## 1
Amino acid sequence: MPSTKKAKRPKLAVFKFASCDGCQLSLLDCEDELLDIAGAVEIANFLEASRAVVKGPYDVAMVEGSITTPHDAERIQQIRRASRFLITIGACATAGGIQALRNFANVKDFISAVYASPQYIQTLNKSTPITDHVFVDFELRGCPVNKYHLVEVVSALLNHRKPNIPNYATCVECKRRGTVCVMVSHGTPCLGPVTQAGCNALCPSYNRGCYGCFGPKESPNTYSLSEWMRDSLQIPKPDIVRLYRGFNAYADAFRRQSEAYEK
Amino acid sequence: MKSNRVIKVDALARVEGEGAIYVKIRNGQVADVKLKIYEPPRFFEAFLRGRRYTEAPDITARICGICPVAYQMSSVHAMENACGVKVGGQLRALRRLLYCGEWIESHALHVFMLHAPDFLGYEDAIQMAKDHPDVVKMALELKKIGNEIVQVLGGREVHPINVRVGGFYRVPTKREFAPLIEKLKWALEASLKSVAFTAKLPFPDFEQDYEFVALRHPDEYPLCEGRLVSNKGLDISIAEFTEHIVEEHVAHSNALHARIVKRGAFFVGPNARYSLNFDKLPPVAQEAAKEAGLEPVCRNPFKSIVIRCVEMVFACYEALRILEQYEPPDRPYVDTHPRAGIGHGCSEAPRGILYHRYRINDEGLIVDARIVPPTAQNQRTIELDLQNFVPRHMNLSDEKLTWVCEQAVRNYDPCISCATHFLKLHIERE
């Protein structure tokens, strides 16, 4: 980042909540860019990568994972206060993640189902996205995030511009790649028409339907897609419910559609 | 030196997930050791119920971003076991190839980015890169090649999309694989250099009488299949896993502690695999191990860093062998038809054996799921290491003692996200 002030690199911090670590790992998976990123910013808190911890305030905080414990609900407040820009990375942080499947059940049943001493359990009834708790400056979608999107967001924030991340449907990416539509050509159910682009329409290029890793696109017509899957493809309703209840199950559009079909 | 002290690491760095260490020293003796895991619960076993058997590889991959392939392999094997299907030939070879990609990626990450900085006194790999730029660049390139295997075959490096019960959704052509062959030849050489580099690190003299547990296959260094064996008499099929290995609920940790019935703690992961399967390594890896000064059995957990490099040599060699003999199969998968029953799967995740068991009904819906990840199995052993290691280093300052305790934990490359995929215990804060 060109700057008139000398050697004052912006501070980047990475924090984790309930998640699999995959989105943070995507930053370490930027093998070609990693040393450049480390040169451009001061990595002030990134426990997965370093035991060196620098105190805030931070210029950019990246938050992975969803809020599932009372302690984490407090911790996110502290992180927000210490951060100039807060961006969420991945489906857990932006939609509650796969662990939000508890939101459709009674968490007490979950606990007693898998567990010897339920009295020790300390967990919230719901897994919620970061934006339910604090103001979020930018949400980066994906399960996992696209690593090039990560680089783009960091670069955009540090250069005071808007990140250039697509908000159209996965279908657009299929068309660009020249992938034949899996729904039209072999009747495979696919969330592509209602899912935000970002993975370069990976699944259809491997002959399978999209299962919604990037969550709902802007104003998705889930109603129409579901009717089409049910009536034209003869997909049973419970399978359609399961399709929406994946890694972005608690994102509004997917949640409402799955609930409508659960009845 | 103070004879009463408490060593605390509130948030372990350079491990996957969130954990802490607590060591209490009273009158110069180790009075208490706790590896605390406070990662939040995620309840995978609970919400897998009612999902289709075909969804297990996509869902369980989300337990871990570093070793999703391990979750996918253990789950597809378990489901095929339940359905009475065996996957052989090129499809089986491709599964090994995918796993090799994950081993290369995960081992390169752990060896150079998470573990080597400990031995050399750096807080992270980025600091290390200033003094050892060639080593860090080589490591990043190795890691990238591992990731490329997973990407070409699996679709993407984190949470691959191409794995299904019965095989793959689509198999790559020879042409898609071709660029990997030259890269893997380089990676094999780089892995050999890694062995030589890590062999020269300063190792504490610390050997313990562990019970090593790993898969063992009659013809191969184990990845997805085999019997479960140990150096103390265990020799069972994976279907017998829960009869011999039990999990206990201990008050201070958020993940369950596993032990072998009537014996106790055991050790899974690179040291165990290597020590139980040295004879199955290809000659190039055996030679590299010998030159690095490793015996065929290695009881020093700090030397796991060298063994990981030896296993990278194996993984590059094996991946090359598979690619050079690759002929695309006629179909990308074999058909599976669900039937009511129980299926078991166990594979060698980079950190050790990962066991899955599912009960499915005749519609193919999951009725019950059980997943035992490697870190839960190693937890007790990690604590015992600290208990035995700390007394030898009482003369160190608190700061240095803290760091060596962290290092002793990082020997295991513990994956805490994996270990606590469904549990959370209440933690008493000191």
## 2
Amino acid sequence: MEQHVHQKEDQVKRILAPLTREAIASLRAGDIVLLSGVIYTGRDAAHKRLVEALDRGETLPFELKDQVIYYVGPTPEKPGQIFGSAGPTTSYRMDAYAPRLLDLGLKGMIGKGYRSDEVTESIKKNGAVYFGAIGGLGAIIGKSVREAVIIAYEDLGAEAIRRLVVEDLPLTVLTDSQGNDLYKIGQAQYLEWRESHDAE
Amino acid sequence: MREINVGEVTKAVRQLAMDANYYLPEDVKGRLVESQKKEKWILASDTLGRIINNADLAAQEQLPMCQDTGMAVVFVELGQDVHLVGGTLEDAINEGVRQGYADGFLRKSVVEDPLNRINTKDNTPAVINLSLVPGDRLKIQVAPKGFGSENMSQMKMLKPSDGLAGVKEFILKVCREAGPNACPPIVVGVGLGGTFDKAAALAKKALMRPLDQPNAKPFYQDLEAELLDEINRLGIGPQGYGGQTTAIAVAIEYYPTHIAGLPVAVNINCHATRHKEIIL
């Protein structure tokens, strides 16, 4: 196994969104990343609408090329706050839609949890990346949002599509562009490591 | 007969909904801190550290610790010597949820119909569990339930011959399948016995128990400890990145059942295991 996820926190990679081919190529499953730049929010209902729009031959409310979608439904912001609490939602519910968006140029997804084999294959095929945000890290992640504007489907409330400007959003690479999966590697390496330590 | 105006119920539920979302209970926080000290796997210990920092930040600034502020699950123990006046209990609870979720800037995640999916925009209705108890007090617990973990819960009607081994196997299977989706470290609520519906209600009730309070019966106490150890040997770890802290507690509730049956329900809660209570 090439990479080892037994990583120290000072080995953090800083990257910008929209993503470049070079940045994606440099990322490996298990890397800890701080992401800055422009990203879009979208979860269940928004994905359904995006794909329905494509089925009708309409253009999407934003250009997908090189963009990152964050699977999140934030809490309403308190007065004086830029953004509410904003941890990730579970990604598998977007699996039915993700390959189609990746084929259209989407390069990054942020969420949590397992993806289907179809999504992993599509990530490899399209040279994309799946980032994990820590589930429930709502308060901390909300603080890394500098700007937030609703750009589509306002009637969906928490599920509306928002354009965000983020600074140092804390993420972990879950599936890299080669299809390496942190959930498999991390758990296997941990079990191997534990076995060697139990034996000592 | 003691009279309680349902307006007090509304007021209490409003406050409990906010407090539950801002302040992680001390027992849960304590287990996370304890687990972080024991974690030797760096990605796991780092992840636990971030989860603890998030809970501290949420409490300090009164922010929801998680964006999924849940469907409001409300447990009510109503003393049979209490006379409620001024309206119905159900309306009073839902009004409290409505006010708490609006005034507390909490996310409204409830849709009025599972298939047509129109948001009710005020997070009502709550899921209310009512039990009548002796006395003249009214106890209310509000437990916002996020669906990352709720979606990973399962129940099964086992055969009596499946026995203890079958029960353990099923619980471990549910935890393994939940993996990172349920936001580990998780709290595992298990309901055993009763009927199909009773087992599920018991599993939910088990999640209400303080983590440092094991089942009173030694047999189930031992089973809770054994299952916690076995779940943590799966290696899933915090957020599924690998590590020993997959669960921070297992709580089992049981009830008599039929000679032909062995219902088992597993209700999973995420690390943001939230609940707050008040006694009126």
